[in-house]
Amino acid sequence: MSEHNAVLQAAADLVTAFASNDREAYFGAFSADATFVFYTLEQPLLTRDAYQALWDSWRLEGFEVLSCVSSNAHVSLQGDIAVFIHDVATELRMQGEQSFSQERETIVFRQQQQGRWLACHEHLSAKP
Which end of the chain has fewer CB atoms at under 10 Å, N or C? Predict the structure, then answer.
């Protein structure tokens, strides 16, 4: 499999894990030092553990992903770094209320020594 396709597969696996509420697979797609910038939060999350703690608190409040669809994917390979951008349509349930969002996302992947691509940064923006 080409590196380009390996990054596309890593991104698809990440989105699938998110869409199916598979906490272990989803957070397993990120490096421990991953950072996260979500337009819905006041501050960046500076580690995977920080995001996991937030995710767990959301789950206690009834957070559930109902669907997540990726489109318009593009990969830019830059050595052992890959920049993946896509549009994402997500339907969520939070505290019993459903919401739908259309967003644009950048995920930076870093190739590990074993050849696996892990996400090391995620930036989510509202789609204009």
Answer: C
